[in-house]
Amino acid sequence: MEPKALAPSLVDSFTEFDPAQITPDLVEVALDHVLDEGIIKDIPIVRAMIGVVKTAASIRDRALVKKLVGFLFSLNSASSETRSNFKARMNVDEEFKKKVGEKLLLIIERLDDMSKPNLVAHAFQAYMEELIDFETFQRLASAIDKSFYSDLMALKSAHSPNKLSPQAKLELSNSGIIELQSTPSINLSSRNNQYQITDLGRDLLKFVLNQ
User: Fold this and answer.
1) Residue ranges per structural domain of the chain
2) What pTM did the predictor assign?
């Protein structure tokens, strides 16, 4: 599968297809029942991948389609005005439009949890609404990709990184979401280290985890 060939179809999916028409049930059965007919096939990016997905050896591509449909479903709260304005911005520069599509495909393809497309979609909607720039979106998507989904949910619930498990602190620190604030003493256990949320982490809480 060539991302460059599919990239424009992905971006078109935001503007030519209303994500509100996708239901969670359709996401679940998309690959098994409705690729040959029905509303899922009307999504530009899915339509572009139909030939690939039908091949018996395309398990990875089938998983990608499911993640893409989940991503699009999670954009269903974006207003028609937001989608229209986004389309206008993308149509000004076809090369940038292709870049956006390629980046999204690569990001979504490597996600290791079927719940993560929803988080990436929240970050992308913030970009569509011009609340963040494209670089910040990419940084948020990279942090989501590198983090365990359960650690992100734990951070959302805990409100403070210092309430997380030592392993979660380490993982989220490696993702750039939290950082070491202070070390009380070199003789004390690392479990006493204090962490704080980074600027990227604050963006994640605000735009992705809705805190």
Assistant:
1) 3-144, 149-208
2) 0.79
